[in-house]
Amino acid sequence: MEKHDRNWLIALIGAGHFFSHFVMLALPPLFLLMKQELGVSYVALGAIVSVMATTTAVGQIPVGFLVDRIGGRVILLCGIGLMSVSLLLVGFLSSYWALFALFALAGMGNSVFHPADFAIMAAKLDDTVHGRAFSIHSFTGYLGWASAALIMLPMAAALGWRLAIMLVGVAGLAIVLAMMAGARFLDDRQALAQRTTVDGQGPRGVAAGIRLMASLPMLMMFAFFALSATVTSGIMAFSIPANVMFQGLAELTASLALTAHLVASAVGVLIGGWLADRTGRHNVVTSLAMMTMVLFVLLLAFEGAVLAVTLAAMIGAGMVYGISSPSRDVMIKNTTPLGSAGVAFGFTSSGMSVGNLLGPLICGWIMDAGRPQLMYMVLAGIAAVSIVAVVLTRSRQTQA
Predict the structure, then answer these.
(1) For FRET with 109, which of 19, 48, 81, 125 sits at 20 to 30 Å CA-CA?
(2) How many domains, the chain?
(3) Which CA distances in Å does 124 have to 120, 147, 186, 198, 273?
(4) Is the dihedral of CA 139, 140, 145, 148 positive or negative?
(5) H-helix or E-strand containing 278?
(6) Residue 200 counted as domain residue
(7) SS3 label, residue 35
(8) What pLDDT was estimated at residue 190?
(9) Phi-psi region of 126 (alpha: psi -120 to 50; beta: other; left: phi over 0)
């Protein structure tokens, strides 16, 4: 693939991934405003984020099979369109349960990104650039998180939280139009036609996909995605009220700390992409990064820490998690047979959705009990357990 076309492909996929992550973090910065207007608990607000994660998780595996069968381009466009329309409707429906239902629909649209994005990149890009392409993909996602944390609260304060969400939907429709204009860069139909099984009998079927999902490497990477996403989603959803309550930070300062955490994740993923293209020890990179993340999250559990320590811990935790991401993705690609990228990334990424479901619920329950210190301790423990999944994945790969 020519460099010009490759750059456009990565740019368009990156724009969609930015939007996906922006939407995933569009609500948590608004929780304090929404709680007052809707009169619901933190658990109820966390449930809105969790239902989006649930429908994303449920959708990713069947979407993965569909991507491997018909290609990712059309599915990607439909997913972004569904998310955008769901967000636009927020301005016309006022009840908590209507909001809950709309974000459930948005989650269905969100389920397309990882299966479609990685299948398109795996089909159209050379192996020599996969590490950097995956890192840019993750980078745009982290930028989406960081931008949501930075933009949503000020925009909601100026326009109201419902109009702020509607404007995000308008931006999503603009991305759909851009992808339609550059559709040829995302067209993986030719590569799809060339995919064959190992025995040359045509596209891999459902039975082969199920066997792949049941293999130990895929199960362990599913577990790693679920555990690490529980940690990151918990930090994103509740670090602002936790740092206000526990560390005595001003609301704006706590919001900026979360933004710094997410920006650091974006920087870290670029470093991780460079490492992923220069080492075959992707399990070591991922494990060491997560070990370091455990230490940074534990720092947040120290009561009365000075502002500099809290900020350093937030930034450090984001940085090392970002570093782990490209190596994690390359590990999945390296264990995936030809023609099964949609299933592999759909299945493992559904683990991320499970974590995104559990994180806000667990942390919301702890926060309703008034225990922000315990929240950080629990998240550090979960991050520590995730390292075991990486070790077991490498063990099976070595044996193979």
Answers:
(1) 125
(2) 1
(3) 6, 29, 9, 19, 18
(4) positive
(5) none
(6) no
(7) helix
(8) 66
(9) beta
Report if residue 199 sits inside a domain: no
Tokens representing 151? 């933009």
In the three-class reduction of DSSP (H, G, I as helix; E, B as strand; rest coil), residue 41 is classed as coil
Distance CA 184, CA 190 (A): 11
Residue 29 lies in a domain: yes
118: amino acid identity, one letter: F
89 domain-assigned? yes
Chain centroid offset of residue 17 CA: 9
∠ CA 118-197-130, rounded to 5°: 25
What's the confidence (pLDDT) of residue 394?
58
Question: Which DSSP string do the residues of 186-254 spell out, in sequence order?
Answer: H--HHHHHH---TTSSSS--HHHHHHHHHSHHHHHHHHHHHHHHHHHHHHHHHHHHHHHHHS---HHHH
Within its chain, how far is the Cα of 317 from the centroid? 16
CA distance 269 to 273: 6
pLDDT (0 to 100) of residue 193:
61
What is the domain-level CATH number for residue 145?
1.20.1250.20
Distance in angstroms (rounded) separating the CA atoms of residues 117 and 72: 7
Name the one residue in this structure whose structure tokens are 């450090």. 316
- The gap from C-alpha 231 to its chain's centroid, in whole angstroms, comes to 12
Domain residues for the domain of 363 are 3-189+205-399
Cα Rg, the chain, nearest whole Å: 20
Mean pLDDT per block of 10 residues along the chain (400 residues) reads 81 95 88 82 84 87 87 91 95 87 94 89 75 85 83 91 94 95 80 52 67 89 94 90 88 88 89 84 90 96 85 95 89 78 85 84 90 94 93 54
